[in-house]
Amino acid sequence: AECINSGITFIGPKPSSITNMGNKTMARSTVAKAGIPVVPGTEEEGALGDEELLKLAPTIGFPLLIKATSGGGGKGMREVNNLNEMPDLIQSARREAEASFGDGNVYLEKLLLGAHHIEFQILADQFGNVIHLGERDCSIQRRHQKLIEESPSPYIGEDESLRKKMGDVAVLAARSVDYTTTGTIEFLVDKNKNFYFLEMNTRLQVEHPVTEMLTGLDIVAEQIRIASGRRLSYTQKDIQMRGAAIECRINT
Fold this sequence. Notes:
By secondary structure, the chain is an alpha+beta fold. The protein is built from eight helices and nine strands.
């Protein structure tokens, strides 16, 4: 916002999009209103007290996750298996969230066991044109941090119907916040191939080269083009995925 007020072009989303999608509970509420399925959890926006969380937990069902409202990278996240262990885990999650993000608020989300973590890369210009660049499978994780990212997803495989459905929903999620530039819509996909919105990353992610290698697009160049007021160079039909790519992260 400060860049915009100072007449400086910001290469990134609108401040309102960052706000709406950066806050996890607000993001869930926003896409749910657009008819997009979300992982079951606490639907209330705003801060929830410990007593409220303890009261809501049995209605969601165990196991569940305590997650930082302003979180990311697995910070402020705790897995809960029963109500007795929950009070201490809430406090632990709040402390880590406060230290990591300056915001100790948390919410609850159902833990989908054995789910696959699949995300779709988005590009959107300032004229309402939104496309996706296919998926990346990020299911191999340690401590809720991604280790391997690959495309195409081995779980989706040759299921082009599922790939199209998820891509269409990713575009719809981006449209729900009037999104521009590059971003990523993350989904959880269960064993029955039901998929649920998890969150949106309102930025360029470290795994973007995986998508660039398959599509031949320079996503950073597209960001700059969009920020300069130009229309997308491509339509959805122009996007062709060729080959396969894998990124391995080294986390200290």
